[in-house]
Queue: 3 jobs
Job 1
Amino acid sequence: VSTQSTGSSGINAEYGKQWYQRRVRGNMSILFLAFVIGAVSAQAGYPTITVEDQKGEKGGSISASFTLESSEIKLQQSDVHVDKASKDHKFSPVRFTVKMEGSGSKITGTITGDKLTCDDQSGYLVYYQRIPRPPAHGPPPGSFMLMIDGCPKPPRRSSGRPTFYYSRTLLFLQFC
């Protein structure tokens, strides 16, 4: 009699273990799917940003143009930001003048600056609403490098393009 009751509880324990494993796998699948959908939706609707690397002379001036275009969302100038990435991986607003025109599906802008210094030589990022997730390869959309003639080149620089990395939830910039 005791053998039958032990065997019965052994079967119930095995069934319970299998049920639990299926339940955990199902929940993990749902969490993974939610993560993938969240990552895709975070990039969905993000505007296409076009800007090119710039070069200036120490003490001179620059004028750089950029465009933002989107057929999925209505663009607003107040959501467009231009930040400078410092060597210690912090972002700050540019000291240059930023002027923009347009709204809706396309915004064009111009970044102008005078009296360039070696401190201006850095990576910059034009972005919409929030800093975007970097792509798997290459620079993020809207990034550009400002090189100043007469200033030392940034350390460990090979391509002249800034490379962005994520570390947990922080965004870092490293010059390649």
Note: Residues 2-43 form the longest helix (42 residues).
Job 2
Amino acid sequence: MGKCLDKLREICLCKNSSDTLLKIYLKRPVARSEQERFEELLSTAVAVVSMHIGKDWVALYRGLPFFPPRGLDIIERDILETEDLFAYGGDSKDIAFHLLVKWCRMHTRAHITDLITILELIHRHDIATQLEEMNHKPEYEDEEEVVVEEISEAERLHQLVTSLCQKLESGEYSPENLLQKLQRK
């Protein structure tokens, strides 16, 4: 029953979405919600940061915002607990990933821009630049170009059909003549 309700909610979201027709026309996935895109972007950002942060993970975690706020003593305790957890195995990538996942779980307003801001503050512009590029990348890289091309093609076809209808109505073409011309092309 729960799966059925979830599927009905998904159908309702797709039906009421303003870009559903465009996605169908461009043969893009329809069911992907904005929340799913946001969560995927944030998890990708967490993976990128943890791969490249190295020893700066401590400064990163200390600078991250939390909502609801966490005291400095709790943040320091998180750092010590994580160091103890990975004392016998694990590198800075594992530690950073663990703490960033914890941050996403504890910070109810976690966003990629928070990570970018802190990375800039701790002078890790290399990672911040990567995240900014990810954050501003469209869902489908060629979407804007495809939309313009598809619309101009649709307009051209519309003008052609309108012209042919006018010629049929005026008697310039008979249906048989039009059919013969179309078959030749």
Note: The chain is about 75% helix and 0% strand.
Job 3
Amino acid sequence: LEKMVFEKKIVVDGRGHLLGRLASTVAKELLSGQRIVVVRCEEINISGSFYRNKLKYLAFLRKKVNTNPARGPFHLRAPSRIFWRVVRGMLPHKTARGEAALKRLKVFEGIPPAYNTTKRMVIPAALRVVRLKPGRNFCVLGRLSHEVGWKYQDVVATLEAKRKAKGVAYYNAKKATLKLRAQAVKNSTEKTAKINAALSAKGY
């Protein structure tokens, strides 16, 4: 998915992508009119050690309006919202065009039921294994969020475990069905040989 082909909606699996590189590709596509859904935001990676990134975020938490902190800036804790804010920073979100582009983005922790059966894409140019030199430090956005106040790490992990178990059961059932179908076709070849020959003679 180097350059996205325009589709009605693209679902991107955030797992193993670098935060900034993923955000910049997503922002560019949003501006061109593409609708994008990013799932598994808690498994997005950030380059640099966990300690370094936590210090950066704690410094960000100290930024506030001195006279009235309720005016902002607002410190989002959930991984999906942190990613959303990074993308927002790459869009001209105060113009009508940028606002419309941001509305075309949906972000989720885990994979909700609406998207667990749809094809999920990756962006090779933003993958950590492609972009980060082996041995370099990196951290996971879900852990960072958890340590700065996100309360749903365990809930998302439980739901993801259930989803994966269902996926394995479905795949095993599908394999068994396909095996039976292949066996049935093999068993019926002798019975249908004459009919098939007649059909092929007529061009079917």
Note: The CA atoms of residues 77 and 150 lie 5 Å apart.
